[in-house]
Specification:
Helix content is 33%, strand content 22%. By secondary structure, it is α/β, with parallel strands linked by helices.
Length: 377
């Protein structure tokens, strides 16, 4: 089969509008599925909704050994209101940068893992133990990956590579993402006599200040640092001349791997006095011990390919690994992609062409190294 150019495949994906919502990821994933099927992969669809597939791809006959798994998503965030200098779906290349929505986050990474897997399949005669999970709806609660993980249709894997944008820096963990609404109740009264009522909006405002100053009882991780909390929304009141008897406070929390969501929520309810806490979304934190033998081999390989010592760091965002790593049985995770994290969700988003090409070489070596270790075992 003809080699797939990861740069040209990235451009094809960027030209397809997959802004989420609504997503409409099928065109991208159908294209990738056809390429993988043509290269000998067995491709299975685990749909999230009509027009929103999730694909699992693996070479037949490789199930006897755990695979090196890769994952990437194809949905992108809205364009924003600021005008773009480059067509957001044009995939233009200028001065070594490929422009467009999703260029960094993360159609470059997704295209490159597909191109590398196809190349590895050709070089190994269809025997490379590699599994790809390509998802829809990552940008809204990691819903595609959660669907795949719940399906029970993942294969056997020994490690997971997430091609999210890191500028080819190695990440091994991140904090979990949790959204909650805190509901407050009071008693309405005429605004001319507010002392006759019980203002729920003031309760929410006091809770917002309390939470902004809360230190999570001193919780801290040696690499991920402190958990975080952002007071994001406040709602309450229906008219100017009544005391509000209902109010709602929306918060975003970034929690550490060893923090139990239920315990954190219990403490928040306790210190704010809210009438009810409603969990909207919870995606687990990810952390792999840097002494993991596979990660140490990856670190050495990256040092060789990049020509400099490599640190195993963290990333600020959540990824599909929150659901896929547990779905694979708690495998080690490497987050490494050609895009730039600072370009994610930006106007005139771009990715360096040279890093796409370098990522292709890295992914291919990771697969070949994994294959050689599996053959020797």
């Amino acid at each position: 089969m003809t080699r797939i150019d990861p740069v040209e495949l990235t451009r094809e994906l960027v030209r397809i509008d997959t802004v989420n919502p609504p997503g409409n990821e099928a065109r991208c994933l159908d294209l990738l599925g056809e390429l993988l099927t043509g290269a000998g992969f067995r491709v299975e669809d685990v749909p999230l909704a009509p027009g929103r597939p999730n694909l699992i791809a693996r070479l037949p006959g490789t199930e006897e050994v755990p695979a090196l798994a890769f994952t990437g998503h194809v949905d992108v965030v809205p364009l924003g209101t600021e005008p773009w200098r480059h067509d957001p779906f044009g995939a233009e290349i200028e001065d070594g940068r490929l422009y467009g929505r999703g260029a960094s986050d993360m159609k470059s990474g997704t295209a490159t893992i597909v191109a590398a897997a196809i190349e590895a399949a050709a070089r190994s005669g269809g025997r490379a133990p590699v599994e790809l999970v390509l998802t829809s709806c990552e940008e809204v609660g990691l819903e595609g990956a959660a669907t795949v993980a719940r399906s029970g249709r993942l294969g056997r894997a020994g490690a997971l590579v997430v091609a999210e944008p890191t500028g080819l820096r190695a990440g091994i963990g991140y904090r979990g993402l949790n959204w909650c609404d805190l509901h407050f109740t009071g008693r309405t009264a005429h605004a001319s006599q507010p002392e006759q009522g019980d203002n729920a909006l003031l309760k929410a405002a006091r809770a917002a200040i309390t939470l902004a100053e809360w230190d999570f009882d001193g919780a801290e991780h040696p690499a991920l640092g402190r958990p975080g909390l952002n007071v994001a929304r406040i709602e309450g009141g229906q008219n100017y001349n009544s005391v509000p008897d209902r109010a709602k406070l929306g918060i975003d929390m970034r929690l550490l791997p060893d923090q139990a969501v239920e315990e954190v929520e219990r403490r928040i309810a306790e210190i704010t006095g809210c009438a009810r806490l409603e969990r909207l979304m919870a995606t687990p934190a990810v952390w792999t011990d840097p002494s993991d033998p596979w990660l140490q081999s990856v670190r050495a390989l990256l040092g060789e390919l990049l020509g400099a010592p490599v640190a195993l760091g963290t990333v600020p965002y959540s990824t599909d690994a929150s659901f896929l790593a547990p779905g694979y049985g708690g495998v080690p995770v490497l987050v490494l992609g050609p895009g730039e994290a600072e370009q994610a969700h930006q106007t005139d988003e771009w990715c360096e062409v040279a890093k796409i090409e370098k990522a292709f070489a890295i992914y291919l070596r990771l697969i070949e190294d994994w294959s050689s270790r599996a053959s020797a075992a």
